[in-house]
């Protein structure tokens, strides 16, 4: 398979959508959090915890339980951050970093207890792949878009629901008001603390699901450090996407395209060191960040 | 009786804002709440609106006693509130701000837009309802808040200094709207310091002084001078005096200033000269041109063409340069000139900290010199509380303004640009500030006063220009009696021709 082969690009683009799911879900969670004027720097840790919880619960009761477990664990971390920052007045940056470290460290410890090293790795089945009838038979586009894992379809749904809720319901302006001018929002009868609790908790749940999208959508098993810093990529994607839902999706696709390309190209171009391909998505994200960072559109109370 | 407050006490730290205050609001009646800055009028309105909790006292709504009271509960009870500092979220449009105060998840932008348009049309004002409110003028925002409160169908409407940014035409429309709402059964409370408005619009009157109710009665048969005397108490009201400007030294020279915002020409070739010792009064219906001119003169806004020169040095778009050349700038919005988290004395010496007069060693602040400077401004401008260590954000609006003006004029400026310097202030504070501006001119400064208050401009200025649609449409020499008909025509844009002084 070479660069010029159409199947090569079909696989790369299909892989891009699959790999975009964790980045997009995490970025969506962070975007909601930041739109409410708060910051969750614990994304990577929460994704790790969600990825692990997904495997454990899926092993016990199937992938549905895995998704629920991942969302619940993520929501707990989000709520923990919310209580520390809003109720107890802690510094959100410090607590966010702490959660990032706890998420990774505690998960690693629990993983050791559950599956001591040296044992056979426990694999869980991936979320089901669904071929959309007829649509998946469209040449080229069909297999890319309509022969996907459930997590990928869930990403599409999250994209559409996210756009709709922010543009067409009152939630959108409430979030913007709280993020831009909490004092003004309070004057107009908005309970800013409540909005932030909800945003942080929901954001955490989405980050947990983002972890599940790695284990249940791609890998089928858990291993330490499996996020590869994707949480921080999601943080960058929120900025690249200018705090908008479609923007976050585009940012996620940018990263996952180069990730997918790297995975495929390694086999075809053995003369290039594989490390170079592993760097590519991160380098591209950094470049995009540098090019878009000038826009002053961040929520003002952030 | 819709609302009845009795024996209400409220303290902010060591300062008593209200003691034993009482007020009744009735269906279909307009009540004015008047008093000096710091008399407790805004606090009283905020307590009813659920923004400030009362310390003690009785609050009865619809015959039932009210416990702890939040803004959300007040909104649910139909209490609309337009605060003096305005409550709109600046990044949202008027429509979205209006919907923000609503309930539920539905977002009916089209419906809200048409209801707001209808209310605006009833008030005879035209508003940009869909742009972020930060792009609107202060007057536009103020009218927008009033329109939004009216559209929300408030049973009780509290307006805190609703006319502070409005011109005479808009005030007239507002008074008519309030009357119409009252006739339809709304209870209106109008917090104001303009006695003329009160006599014209209100049915009953509450006069506050030092947190106590001095008078509670109907406006019928009340004498304006009597109310003014009650508000101020027996105090000597300083009066600004005008010394004729004779110097030929043109300290401020502006030529061909152009400013474009999308398709709109905000400043369309403004040229003017202000001589040493002269006060130039700038009049016009409140709009976008006045704030733009003020900021362009101070170098704070980039212009599309033209020059601003101070003492023959080009300072166009150069705020540092103009400050170095002795420009004092009093912005329309005092939050732009006062750092709310700093103390009075720190605000007083803000631009000169570590400067020659405020240091013992290079690079080291001299706090005691800063302190003395703060105390001087407090004494000269009667800033209350007279404590240089008080946090500026805790002062009432009027006292913040006195501090701001005091700081700017204490630098012995060469050019003064003051935009709405006495907006929202009581008579005594306004008189103090006008006298200080006149004194700065007498000391050799070229002064530009931009204001919506025509009486203020006529009292202060040597010369007056009228700006309409970004152009100077008329100029008057104030040493001679002004033809008020011509002035009115120029203000309303009826007369486009240049009028010779």
UniProtKB/TrEMBL annotation, chain A:
Specify the protein's topology with respect to the membrane. Multi-pass membrane protein
Tell me where on the tree of life, at the top rank, the source sits. Bacteria
Write out the entry's keywords from A to Z.
Cell membrane, Membrane, Transmembrane, Transmembrane helix
The Gene Ontology CC terms held by the record are: plasma membrane
The GO terms describing molecular function are:
transmembrane transporter activity
- Entry keyword Phosphoprotein: no
Task: Show the stretches that span the lipid bilayer.
Answer: 6-29, 41-61, 67-86, 93-111, 150-167, 197-220, 232-258, 279-297
Localized where?
Cell membrane
Extract the PANTHER family matched here: ABC TRANSPORTER PERMEASE PROTEIN (PTHR43370:SF2), SUGAR ABC TRANSPORTER INTEGRAL MEMBRANE PROTEIN-RELATED (PTHR43370)
Name it.
Answer: ABC transporter permease
TrEMBL record, chain B:
The reply to whether Nucleotide-binding figures as a keyword in the UniProt entry is: yes
Q: Name one Pfam family in it.
A: ABC_tran
Which InterPro entries does the UniProt record give? AAA+_ATPase (IPR003593), ABC_carbohydrate_import_ATPase (IPR050107), ABC_transporter-like_ATP-bd (IPR003439), ABC_transporter-like_CS (IPR017871), P-loop_NTPase (IPR027417)
PROSITE patterns in UniProt: ABC_TRANSPORTER_1 (PS00211), ABC_TRANSPORTER_2 (PS50893)
| UniProtKB keywords | ATP-binding, Nucleotide-binding, Repeat, Sugar transport, Transport
Named from the GO MF annotations, one term is: ATP hydrolysis activity
The answer, when asked if Nucleotide-binding is one of the entry's keywords, is yes
| Coiled-coil portions | none
> What family does this belong to?
Belongs to the ABC transporter superfamily.
What protein name is recorded for this chain? Answer: ABC transporter domain-containing protein
Q: Which organism is it from?
A: Kumtagia ephedrae
């Amino acid at each position: 398979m070479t660069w010029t082969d159409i199947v090569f690009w079909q696989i790369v683009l299909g892989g891009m959508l699959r790999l975009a799911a964790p980045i997009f879900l995490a970025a969506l969670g962070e975007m909601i959090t930041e739109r409410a004027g708060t910051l969750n720097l614990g994304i990577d840790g929460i994704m790790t915890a969600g990825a692990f919880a997904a495997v454990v619960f899926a092993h016990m009761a199937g992938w549905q339980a895995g998704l629920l477990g991942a969302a619940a664990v993520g929501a707990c971390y989000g709520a923990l951050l919310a209580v520390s920052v809003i109720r107890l007045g802690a510094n959100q940056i410090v607590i966010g970093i702490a959660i990032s470290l706890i998420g990774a460290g505690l998960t690693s410890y629990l993983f050791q207890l559950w599956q001591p090293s040296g044992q056979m790795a426990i694999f869980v089945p991936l979320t089901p792949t669904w071929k959309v009838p007829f649509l998946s038979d469209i040449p080229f586009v069909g297999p890319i878009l309509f022969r996907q894992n459930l997590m990928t379809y869930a990403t599409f749904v999250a994209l559409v629901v996210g756009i709709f809720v922010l543009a067409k319901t009152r939630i959108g302006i409430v979030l913007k008001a709280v993020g831009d001018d909490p004092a003004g929002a309070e004057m107009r009868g908005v309970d800013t603390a409540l909005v932030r609790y909800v945003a942080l908790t929901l954001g955490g749940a989405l980050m947990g699901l983002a972890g599940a999208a790695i284990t249940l959508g791609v890998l089928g098993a858990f291993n330490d450090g499996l996020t590869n810093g994707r949480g921080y990529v999601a943080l960058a994607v929120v900025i690249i996407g200018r705090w908008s839902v479609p923007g976050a999706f585009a940012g996620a696709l940018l990263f996952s395209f180069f990730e997918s390309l790297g995975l495929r190209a390694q086999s075809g171009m053995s003369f290039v060191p594989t490390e170079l391909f592993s760097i590519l998505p991160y380098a591209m994200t950094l470049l995009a960040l540098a090019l878009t960072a000038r826009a002053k559109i961040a929520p003002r109370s952030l | 009786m819709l609302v009845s407050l009795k024996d209400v006490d409220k303290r902010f730290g060591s300062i008593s804002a209200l003691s034993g205050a009482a007020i009744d609001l009735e269906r279909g009646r307009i009540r004015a709440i008047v008093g000096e800055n710091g008399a407790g009028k805004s606090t009283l309105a905020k307590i009813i609106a659920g923004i400030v909790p009362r310390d003690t006292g009785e609050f009865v709504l619809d015959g039932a006693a009210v416990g702890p009271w939040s803004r959300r509960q007040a909104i649910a009870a139909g209490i609309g509130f337009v605060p003096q500092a305005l409550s709109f979220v600046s990044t949202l449009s008027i429509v979205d701000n209006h919907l923000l105060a609503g309930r539920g998840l539905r977002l009916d932008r089209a419906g809200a837009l048409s209801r707001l348009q209808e209310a605006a049309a009833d008030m005879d004002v035209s508003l940009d309802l869909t742009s972020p409110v930060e792009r609107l003028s202060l007057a536009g925002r103020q009218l927008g808040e009033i329109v939004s409160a009216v559209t929300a169908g408030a049973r009780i409407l509290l307006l805190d200094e609703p006319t502070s940014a409005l011109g005479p035409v808009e005030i007239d429309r507002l008074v008519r709207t309030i009357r119409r709402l009252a006739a339809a059964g709304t209870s209106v409370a109008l917090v104001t310091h303009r006695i003329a408005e009160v006599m014209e619009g209100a049915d009953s009157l509450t006069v506050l002084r030092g947190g106590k109710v001095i008078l509670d009665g109907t406006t019928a048969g009340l004498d304006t001078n009597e109310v003014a005397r009650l508000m101020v108490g027996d105090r000597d009201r300083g009066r600004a005096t005008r010394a004729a400007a004779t110097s030929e030294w043109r300290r401020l020279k502006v030529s061909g200033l152009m400013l474009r915002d999308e398709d709109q020409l905000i400043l369309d070739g403004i040229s003017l000269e202000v001589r040493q010792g002269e006060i130039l009064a700038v009049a016009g219906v409140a709009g976008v041109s006045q704030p733009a001119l003020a900021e362009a003169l101070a170098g704070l806004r980039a212009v599309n063409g033209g020059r601003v020169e101070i003492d023959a040095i080009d300072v166009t778009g150069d705020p540092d340069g103009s400050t170095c050349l002795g420009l004092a700038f009093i912005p329309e919005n005092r939050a732009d000139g006062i750092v709310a988290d700093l103390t009075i004395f720190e605000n007083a010496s803000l631009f000169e900290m570590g400067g020659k007069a405020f240091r013992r060693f290079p690079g080291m602040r001299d706090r005691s010199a800063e302190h003395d400077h703060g105390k001087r401004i407090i004494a000269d401008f009667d800033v209350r509380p007279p404590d240089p260590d008080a946090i500026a954000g805790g002062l009432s609006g009027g006292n913040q303004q006195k501090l701001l003006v005091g700081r700017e004029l204490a630098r012995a400026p060469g050019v003064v640009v003051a935009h709405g310097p006495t907006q929202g202030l009581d008579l005594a504070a306004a008189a103090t500030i006008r006298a200080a501006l006149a004194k700065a001119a007498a000391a050799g400064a070229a002064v530009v006063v931009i204001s919506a208050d025509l009486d203020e401009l006529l009292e202060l200025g040597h010369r007056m220009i009228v700006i309409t649609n970004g152009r100077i449409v008329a100029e008057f020499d104030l040493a001679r009696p002004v033809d008020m008909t011509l002035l009115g025509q120029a203000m309303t844009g009826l007369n486009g021709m240049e009028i010779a002084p």
